[in-house]
Specification:
Blueprint lengths: L2 H13 L14 E4 L5 E8 L2 E9 L1 H9 L9 E10 L2 E8 L4 E9 L4 E7 L7 E7 L4
Antiparallel strand pairs: 1-2, 1-8, 2-3, 3-4, 4-5, 5-6, 6-7, 7-8
Protein name: DUF2147 domain-containing protein
Keywords: Signal
Pfam family, one: DUF2147
Length: about 140
């Protein structure tokens, strides 16, 4: 195959929007912000698993984390050991820094490209959730 054709194929592949991907091809990689825009996390692969690390926190979020025993909030993994459970969904551990505790968690990449993060005391008991949105980068 010549360079021109392979270059056209590359451009064609790049032009396909994320929404056109099948659920099996979608992933949560990237930077996400919580509903208050007070915390941003970078979600990335950790070997075969999914992790989410704090890359930004405002002063209030840092203070809340410090009260919970996490004075160095930037770099903390909020999502740990997430494994695929189906197309666009994962299960693992969610860390809540102001409580300094890990909870059973679920991630769901929604059709609108938001990320539903859910944490529970036990399987489907005592659950809370947040909808995180992608941080658009240029």
């Amino acid at each position: 195959m010549n360079r021109c054709i392979s270059g056209l194929l590359l451009l064609a592949c790049l032009a396909v929007p994320a929404a056109a991907q099948s659920p099996e091809e979608r992933h949560p990689w990237g930077r996400w912000k919580n509903p208050f825009n007070s915390v941003h996390m970078e979600v990335s692969p950790c070997g075969e698993l999914v992790c989410g690390k704090v890359v930004y926190a405002n002063d209030k979020a840092k203070a809340d984390a410090a009260k919970g025993g996490n004075p160095d909030f930037i770099g903390v993994n909020l999502l740990e050991d997430f494994q695929p459970t189906g197309p666009g969904s994962w299960a693992g551990k969610v860390f809540v820094p102001d409580l300094n505790h890990h909870f059973r968690g679920e991630l769901t990449l929604e059709p609108d490209d938001s990320l539903l993060v859910k944490g529970c005391l036990a399987t489907h008991v005592g659950c809370k959730h947040q909808v995180w949105t992608r941080v658009q980068t240029d």
